[in-house]
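Lecture 7, part B: from sequences to assemblies.

Below are the input chains for today's worked example.
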Amino acid sequence: MKIYVFGLREDEIEPLNQWKAANPDVDVDYTANILTEETANLAKGADGVVAVQTQPYSRHALEIIHDLGISKFSVRNVGLDGFDFKDLNDFGFTLTYVPVYSPNAIAEHASFLVGRLLRRVPEFDKKFQSGNFKWFPTIGTEISGKTVGVIGTGHIGSVFARIMQFGYGANVIAYDIDPNPALENLGIYVDTLDELLEKSDIISIHTPLAPKDHHMLDADAIAKMKDGVYLINCARGGLLDNNALIDGLDSGKIAGAGLDVLENENGIFQNEFDSVEAVNDPVFQNLAHRDNVIITPHTAFYTERAVHNMIFDSMNDNKAMISGKEPKNAVDTHK
Ligand code: COI
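Predicted structure of the full complex, as structure tokens:
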């Protein structure tokens, strides 16, 4: 049995070697390249493929994998917005994903973004670098007592809600089209997204990017928010309309934003430039030069535990499918 791994980063080599040592019956080969129509043929001879990437999976690349006789496809991450499920179904793929590699990784990161914004850390960092150790006028605000609105209360959103409520003493409210029974006893759910938008001082979004949710937070949604709201997005860039965000920051409607994802992040994140200024993207330039915007390059997930689990869970599921066994995290691509 052979599994071919696409997009393997250096930090994934060690956990992959550990998995290989525990599964000597599986032949594993890999490339650092992501899956594209140019690289798809590398999987020749494999029974299954395992991939991760923020770039969309093209129909043609999937067709090549299919033509190689491979139908078992596993991704090492949670978000599935890079696929058109029709392509997967047309080519008869069975897909697995890793829905809970470490909800804490992302939820903790989102909470750090809140803390760094409210305590004006970027401004203090700049002052520090210039030798200015004065407090005034960089006074912060506290999370305690603030109303934190959590949109999406799956694995990640529910950890974030608990951190905010029990760790910081925030008044947490939440909205989800499918409320999480594990959170019902906290009494945090509001009935509509609008109610959450209207009541929250800080809003953090933790939903997948379904096509219907593209620009869920657009100019209309932002208009409904409190003046001076803080926005956190560690989910998917496409959930937030960048132009509406910029208008909101310009007018002061939005007091600050913590962004681990950007709609236009491909080609920027995971690349190295000579300087921030060398990034040729007006939206990025606009956001990157504001003291009240913190951008992290899609690193919320990036912890040792998460990377280990992403490798192990995806490889286990790919092997299970090839062996004719039930994988732990199958995706229903026909829904
Ligand atoms: C995900 O798990 O969907 C992420 O956003 C992480 C990234 C490695 C694709």
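Note for the exam: The first helix runs from residue 13 to 22. Keep this in mind when comparing with the next example.
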